[in-house]
Specification:
single chain; 323 residues; Rossmann fold; Arc Repressor Mutant, subunit A; 50% helix
Length: 323
């Protein structure tokens, strides 16, 4: 399989290395398995003849025109983590050229994968319109506003949709690479994961800092503060809207636009966030904690914790007992 890894200027060093190391490791481990395994021929290519990483390292890129015709093109993140510098980078001539390359490759049937900030470059090309995708969690408000036609599911770590695969924040480059290897050989992907000591991480929701996202919009930030102040009370959207001098409809619409959640879902997330904190830092039982986060008893809270955290709930309890 021919793979082109397209490195744009200021490519994120860790993301690029994770991709290259995953496929190199797969090729090294393949002979250890009994059944014949795929060989990944990886070419590091650039649109520009000289590419430097975000940490200033010169990369040995092959001009894209001289790279072998790819079966798969991978777009690692560029190293712009905050909205303002990212907006400037997305307006660059190189990103515009990358968009043309991506559209041309997609038109030839090439599969395309992008991780973290690389998902913005892919979305900028228009190829993700109408497709499901994920992106780096702390930039989901910007992504939703900039690419409203993309069906964003930022809770998931890796999303496959048509010919496209997108992955979440930073080290999701490794999750994405394992998913791509798994498509060719599940057995080989499992071995690579073991050698690289990588656990399955189907969701990035456990890493999300809710108030970071909320502060992307003044009205949402105000709602976040109001909910946290009234967390132990029964939630009423009418009361929240009145306190923020807005309508229920406007508040709900803004939450959907910025966070992709309903007010009730966001309140639920904050209650779970607080409950997990109390489970880790206090010796209170679930029933007592439930009262402090707005539930009448522990049954509902236990159900939500299991649904949201799964096996992670047991780890939290172990950590709390050992603290």
């Amino acid at each position: 399989m021919n793979i082109t890894v397209l490195a744009l200027d200021s490519v994120f060093d860790t993301g690029l290395s994770a991709v290259l190391d995953a496929f190199t490791t797969a090729n090294e481990l393949a002979p250890m398995l009994e059944a014949p395994q795929p060989v990944f021929n990886v070419t590091l290519a650039g649109i520009r003849p000289a590419v430097r990483s975000a940490q200033g390292m010169q990369l040995p890129v092959v001009p894209l025109a001289y790279a072998p015709a790819p079966d798969l093109l991978i777009l690692p993140a560029i190293g712009h983590k905050m909205p303002e510098p990212l907006q400037a980078a997305l307006a660059s001539a190189e990103v515009a050229e990358a968009g043309a390359v991506l559209r041309r490759q997609a038109g030839q049937g090439v599969r395309i994968a992008a991780a973290c900030i690389g998902t913005f470059v892919l979305a900028e090309s228009g190829l993700l319109d109408g497709e499901e995708a994920t992106t780096t969690w702390w930039l989901t408000p910007m992504f939703r506003q900039r690419y409203p036609k993309v069906r964003l599911d930022a809770q998931r770590m890796v999303v496959a949709s048509g010919r496209f695969i997108t992955a979440g924040a930073a080290l999701s480059h490794l999750d994405m690479s394992l998913a791509l290897i798994r498509q060719a050989s599940p057995e080989l992907a499992a071995m690579v994961a073991r050698y690289l000591v990588v656990d399955a991480r189907p969701a990035q929701s456990a890493y999300v800092i809710s108030d970071h996202l909320a502060h992307a919009d003044p009205l949402v930030a105000g709602f976040d503060r109001w909910v946290r102040q009234h967390l132990a009370e029964g939630f009423q959207l009418e009361a929240a809207a009145a306190a923020l001098a807005t309508s229920k409809r406007t508040l709900a619409r803004r939450l959907q636009e910025v966070l992709g959640k309903t007010p009730v879902n966001y309140v639920q997330d904050l209650r779970i966030e607080r409950a997990v904190h109390l489970l880790k830092t206090s010796d209170q039982n679930v029933d007592r904690i439930a009262e402090q986060v707005g539930y009448r008893d522990g049954v509902t809270l236990r159900t939500l914790l299991r649904r949201k955290l799964g096996k992670g709930l047991r780890d939290i309890r172990v950590t709390a007992r050992s603290a």
